[in-house]
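pinging the channel bc i need a second pair of eyes. not urgent but kinda urgent?? the chain im working w is below, pasted from the shared doc
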Amino acid sequence: MKRKRTGAKITMHLAGGVHGITRGFTFRFVGGCILGQVLAAYGPIERVAIQATSSSLGLFTRPLGCSQIVGWNSIRMGSAQIAIVAECTSLTPTLILASALFAYPARLRSKLAGAALFAPLIWMFNLGRIVALAFVMNWKPALFDLAHLFLWQMITLLLIAAMFATWRQRQVTEVFGK
């Protein structure tokens, strides 16, 4: 008896129990996150991400007349000067989402499509996040750390989780037709 390729792997995993699929996903996800962070910390990749973020911010905000690029990694918006560091780029959130996508038992084509769709969306979200933080810095500097370290970190994590949940639901719907 031949099994259909679509969904057979997921069906077999579900028949074997939820613990096996959860352990496998967790191991692959954590391993992907660690590998991604090691690669992202490599100097040239980090520098390119920082420069691309600074340049994109300049292109995004210059037509509004509210920014100027100060250095290779700094931008001035109003009275706020923002230094872009590795953590300010969309690299880490994109790597976390890609790790989740590639850890999940789905077709490679679907994983690549998800990564190709979500990476630019995360990039645009991140630019909006930095612009919003610049407004906070100009409006109420005392709230900057709260917004930067807590509010936007949580919103970013929720966005990544929502993107993964949306993609995962589509995988389940394609396999089981529900």
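so Confidence is low (pLDDT under 50) at residues 1-8, 10-16. and The longest strand covers residues 68-71. — does that match what u expected or am i reading it wrong
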